[in-house]
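Feature request, filed as a ticket because there's no other form

It would be nice if the structure record came with a short human-readable summary line next to the tokens. Right now we just get the raw output. Example of a typical job, pasted below so the devs can see what we mean:
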Amino acid sequence: MPVTPRTARIVWLRGACAGVVLAAFGTALWAQSATTGQIYTCVDAKGRKLTSDRPIVQCLDREQTILNPSGTVKAKLGPVLTAVERSQVEAARRAELKQLAHKEEEKSLNRSLLIRYPNQAAHQRDQDEAVAQLMLVKHAAAARVTVLRAEGAKLDQEMAFYTKDPSKAPPKLLRQVRELTQTLAAQERFLADQDSEIERVNTRFVQERKRLMPLWQAKQVSATPATAR
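Raw output as currently delivered:
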């Protein structure tokens, strides 16, 4: 079949169209890849700015920036930590969590105290009652000590007959002296413990009052009408 000028032009146009289609298809593929790709960039230890489509090995010890295909920042990639650095980070995180837990515990304690003692009068009343109960126990213990000492004085009078040789005293008398001495020592320790307990209770209420004072003041301010402030 002879090739006429018209036939040659048709063949040329078909080839040109095919080239345009292929070029457009290739451009679309590149655009699709660009929209889903990530760009890593950083400045290494030598001051060089490096770029890659994956994490940069030369910058594992420093922060890397992850860019979108448009060049905007997508995220930051932190440095790869050593075992010691990871341990330090974990220790810092545990300390932070412990501090947060302590703050929550303090808030919970404040709420509980404020519910139990809505004002200073209620707190003082509870302290007076607690100390009064301990004082009753202390007075009873002191009275018991007085009785034991009186009994001890009588036994001392009986033992006076055996001053030169106490071993010659009757076994019953020696046993009574020994038992009374032990009982009196225990009772005196108990009496001293009551003094310590009274001091401990008073100290606790003083510490609670210091904590509650600003809470009471804040509560009073919040309860005051705005027009009265």
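Something like this underneath would help us a lot:
DSSP finds four helices and four strands in the chain.
The chain has three domains: 40-80, 83-116, 119-220.
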